[in-house]
Amino acid sequence: DVQLVESGGGSVQAGGSLTLSCAASGYTYSSYCMGWFRQAPGKEREGVAVIDSDGLAKYADSVKGRFTISRDVAKNTLYLQMNSLRPEDTAMYFCARAEQGSFTKYNYWGQGTQVTVS
Q: Half-sphere exposure of 89 toward its Cβ, with a 13 Å CA cutoff?
């Protein structure tokens, strides 16, 4: 079974940094696009950053220049380095795996990790 397990969330002051990790298992990790998404209370889920199997990354405008998505194929792990955090970055962050051959459709999700910026 496909499993995605996030970690690394927490509480941080504005301007601080956090690194989220997502450990993947149950499939050939390198063959699929992966992404980070977030959902704040009362708001819709939004895409934060995605990365394809070749390492090509795309970011939401709100996080460009502050967040970096990366993947370690040997460790089957996805990362999100978050710098210069702002209160508006407060949300539950989820990692997700895309459908085969897709960059935009995600069908497996982790349980989420909370990020709170004050």
A: 31
